[in-house]
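ok trying this again, last paste got cut off
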Amino acid sequence: MEHVTIKDVAKKLNVSVSTVSRAFNDKYDIRKETKDLILKTAKEMGYRPNPIAKKLLQKRSFNIGIVVPEFVNSFFPEVIIGAQEVLIEKGYQVLIMQSDQSWETERKNVQVLVDNMVDGLIISLSSESKNSTYYQKLITSNIPIVFFNRVVEEFETSKVLFDDYKWALFATEHLIIQGYKDIVHLAGTKNLTLTKNRMKGFEAAHKKYKQPVGRVIHCGFKMEAGEQVALKMIEKNKVPRAIFAASDATAIGAMHVFKKHGLSIPEDVAIVGFSESRLAAHTSPPITSVEQPTNDIGQTAAKLLLEQIENNGIFVPQTIILNGRLNIRESSINIV
């Protein structure tokens, strides 16, 4: 099928190209009847605007880049879905890249998006210790960026966070109230702020109830890490009475190994996870987990970014901290 151009529409109606252009761009200096006729004829002829020309005219790519650490857990895909809902409605396309927890890959991903002239970036960092200088340069060059989940607090840009401290405290408190002692925290990657905040919440719950603070084992967020830690606990005969894990994946990995070695959940080991993954309610037994508002995180990040873009970079950085809830299930209920 031959591509219909603006010249074809002008020729069909015997009007100038500039008149057709004014109709398409809804200019004030064209009669309503003429504009309606041009738009009707263009539709009948199968005319479609040239998206590249439109982008050049408006000096925007209408592309937004989203960079996340991984797709293994459902958390990041769910956040992306929330962001897409807002961005697509506003006429933007979304370009998604993942760093596989590698700072070097993350930097390359971001640079590709910047080189392709995205209008803005939504980013969850793979590491908070290696990338400060690189992102600071991007921020000072007025590239709109919103960080979420994993951030550098010193950056003068908007951020969307979850109250990790409070909900880690609530999750640990739940185990203490159930009567569990000797609670181990399977913590995330050491250098992440969210890891530190969840550790602080874990410690604060123990102090609140005047309990000795349990062990903290840094193992990351993957299922394999939970499996390895649980196996070492069994081998060293140091299986705790309860576990609060920094992710559902590590909680599920640990539970799988414990059950494989004849331990019952929660009779022998109680388990609480974090992030309310899609698997949490479908394990046996179902896992208690802290639910994060993934859709709201994505939507909020997208709205903050669009506000920055539409104000031509003139904005006051905002930090939005969202709330969650603790979904209590069989894995942590003391039935003794």
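PB: full thing came through this time. The chain has three domains: 6-49, 58-162+294-323, 164-292+326-332.
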